[in-house]
Design a protein that fits this description.
heterodimer, A: about 190 residues, mainly alpha, 3-stranded antiparallel β-sheet, two-stranded antiparallel ribbon, 9 helices, elongated, B: about 210 residues, Ribosomal Protein L9, domain 1, Methane Monooxygenase Hydroxylase, Chain G, domain 1, 2 domains, 8 helices, 5 strands, about 45% helix
Chain lengths: ~190, ~210
């Protein structure tokens, strides 16, 4: 519940995933574009945003499929070379979504798969985040998910803060408002 | 993950670390006559010309700026000592050499304010920069060894400024590892064959903190 107001969480849950309806549902034909009447038949395949799929799953009205970003193709790519996989284009909230989806689907391997992916990417990319030269950095940046991006930015900002301090300069900064000359009112 | 969305994860700014460093004591040689200063943090003085006294760094810098003293360079900042430390740093790839906790800040303050008091200033300055680079590089290579079974990381002899730089990144990284390696994510795999390895890691979170 502490994440209820978290913007990242809200955006993440907006991702679509396919679900199979276990029961028929009246009055919500809007969800299924191929429905003729205003209802969703049992066993039909619908694309729903994750927050809706989650709630319906808790009410045991649907069974959820794996979101497309965790399919076999992605797994193979990550096993080949984790650091080069462009996770952001698949799903910018790769890890978060995986953590949420894992209990919903029957797939038990997501947890260790996420861990494996994160560890490898961490080793290759993030451990160099601190001292990454400006030329090197942009190559990796578009590949990172939101969480990795936060890690990276934390490292960068603390490093730049240190460098700025090292260069020196006055300890006191004059507030900018004091430097403004009075303008005569027009 | 309370701090994940907050980019400034309770971090000291570099200037604040420098402020804390100014409490370290240094030796000065005053050239004025002054009675004891009774301050809340302690009594300093009396100041007599050419008699060395020990004062906090902030006081030393203040006096120096007014031309009332000369600062004696600390023992560890001599060129011989720094060269030794640099050699030792380069020779031991896994350990950090013992250095004063605030060596980065103290050296910067002294270089900026007490240039003429330090023998071989340029040499000492470049040595300190080299030492800092080597230590930081050691830290980065150590980072790559963090795996999911790390619960406590012990880094001996890391200085205040270095700790401050890596703090946000390090904390977040460990949080992320803990999140992905938590028992809920992996526990249901204990029966699977491939989880023979993960089973070892699974015991970790339930034990008390122990060294890596």
């Amino acid at each position: 519940m502490s994440r209820y107001f978290d913007i990242d969480d809200i955006i993440m849950e907006d991702k679509h995933s396919t679900v199979f309806f276990k029961v028929g549902a009246n009055g919500v034909g809007l969800l299924d574009p191929s429905a003729e009447t205003n209802r969703v038949e049992q066993g039909s395949r619908v694309e729903l945003p994750f927050w809706l799929a989650n709630e319906l799953y808790l009410r045991q009205a649907v069974s959820v499929n794996i979101p497309p970003c965790f399919n076999l193709k992605t797994r193979r790519e990550i096993q080949a070379d984790a650091a080069c996989v462009d996770l952001r284009s698949r799903c910018p909230y790769f890890y978060e979504l995986g953590c949420k989806v894992a209990p919903l689907i029957g797939d038990k391997t997501i947890g260790s798969f996420l861990l494996y992916a994160f560890m490898n990417r961490f080793k290759d990319i993030l451990s160099k985040a601190h001292s990454a030269a400006f030329a090197v950095a942009p190559r990796f940046l578009p590949l990172l998910t939101k969480e990795e991006m936060q890690l990276y930015e934390a490292a960068c900002s603390s490093m730049t803060g240190f460098k700025k301090w090292r260069v020196g300069g006055s300890r006191f900064e004059k507030a900018s408002i004091l430097g403004m000359k009075k303008r005569s009112s027009e | 993950m309370a701090g994940q969305s907050d980019p400034s994860l309770s971090m000291f700014s570099a200037a604040e670390v420098e402020f804390l460093a100014e409490d370290e004591m240094v030796e000065i040689v005053p050239n004025l006559n002054m009675d004891t200063l009774n301050l809340i943090c302690g009594d300093f003085g009396p100041f007599r010309p050419q008699m060395a006294t020990s004062v906090p760094l902030w006081l030393a810098v203040a006096l120096k700026k007014r031309g009332k003293c000369t600062i004696r360079s600390p023992q560890w900042m001599s060129v011989e000592n720094l060269t030794q430390v640099l050699e030792a740093e380069r020779d031991s790839p896994a350990q950090f050499q013992p250095l004063p906790f605030h060596y980065v800040e103290i050296s910067r303050l002294l270089f900026d304010n007490a240039r003429d008091d330090i023998p071989d200033m340029y040499m000492a300055r470049s040595l300190i920069e080299d030492i800092r680079d080597v230590r930081f590089h050691k830290f980065e290579t150590g980072l790559e060894k963090i795996s999911s079974s790390t619960h406590v990381v012990k880094l001996k002899n890391l200085s205040a400024m270095e700790v401050n730089i890596v703090r946000p990144f390090f904390v977040r990284a460990l949080q992320a590892f803990a999140k992905h390696d938590s028992p809920q994510m992996i526990h249901h795999q204990q029966d699977a064959m491939s989880s023979r390895q993960t089973h070892v890691q699974d015991d970790g979170p339930r034990r008390d903190l122990r060294r890596r």
